[in-house]
User: What shape does this take?
Amino acid sequence: MGRLTIFFLAISVALIGCGTPAATPEISVGENRDVGKVAAVSHRAGDWPWWRGPAGNGIAGQSEIVPVKWSESDNVVWKANLPGRGHSSPTVVGNRIFLTTANKSQQTQSVLCLDRKTGDLVWSTEVNKGGLPPKIHNKNTHATPTVACDGNRLFASFCNHDSIQVTALDLDGNQLWQQTVGPFQPRSYKYGYAASPAIHESFVVIAADYDGGGYLAALSRGDGAIAWRKSRPAKLSYSSPVITNIAGRDQLLISGCDLVAGIDPNTGDEIWSIPATTMATCGSLVWDGDLVFASGGYPKAETVCVRADGKGEILWRNRTKCYEQSMLAHDGFVYAVDDGGIAYCWKADDGTQKWRHRLSGPISSSPVLAGGNIYLTNERGTTFVFKADPENFESVAENRLGEEGFATLSICSGQIFIRTTIGRGQGTLYCIGRNGEANP
Assistant: This one.
């Protein structure tokens, strides 16, 4: 063997040794004997308990009567200043509102609780100190995942100390447990972490897709023990998992890593997967009947419709880039908006475009449907309200609050909760109600 060959072999070994981290070890159901049953998930009709609302699809009650117009002086029930910075949506349970926030200079990550009637801060619990990633994209924060609530406990996920950590609190802000789910060491930290936790039966489910070897995991809601953890492709993506009953069974739906997939939420085992969309997606999947819809934006742009029965059938696809936003599927139609602020309506079963309309972008938040109207906030703090009408785009109102809008709205019991910023990044939460009514 010549010296040149030995030299290149040594270089190759060195590169392998300092390259991609090893894949996170898998855990199968049954290996962790300490995982047990916990109290059933319970919510009231007026709650917005996790990312994208009760069904995880961005749809509020269709009988909701909520304002379509507001301003700093009209239909504002209260306005509350929030410490730190975050893009998590408000989680509304009973008479309380829960959000995450982070203070980069102090290196802290916290969960906040506000009184729903007054906006007063009830408590603030710091769950992490130090260990925040050194860089973050200007469209992301160190507190972007939305809190999930099972009616008795709060679950908050953060990227911290090169890992994904989940903290459980009671409704009074007392820490019940904290679990390191697994490593999170992407080659570039600058894009951060974004996936919100999902709840299924006894579990809280976490996604952590990154190019060092990502994973999905389920933790016991009771004590944080890892029930199962399954590997994902070693690719960077940001989508939150969503769990629903579709095609005759419960499925965890997720896109990203060049796949659209249905996973058994009880075991983490793959039910089906189809090569589709792109490497990086941010929005959660939506569904109509047994059809699921996904979109992504890096390194290419694609929106797809897949039948979720495991047969691998792609019904339609187009080149629309809904990268940061989730879509809406309702009554046989899909409503979507791309990063630049162009809104679309497609027929769900064949992808026929019904209309296309330019709003004012850029837009990073996701649409919410309430009372027959779609509510959507752009990055400049303007919320567009338009009809969920497949025949024509019909604008209802445009409302401006704050200077920046990245968080998705929460709408429940006749009220709209809008997280925005004013001044030099001061976080603000608005409660919007008819005639400023505090008690819907």
Observations:
- The domain at 48-436 is CATH 2.130.10.10 (Methylamine Dehydrogenase; Chain H).
- Residues 90 and 99 are 5 Å apart (CA to CA).
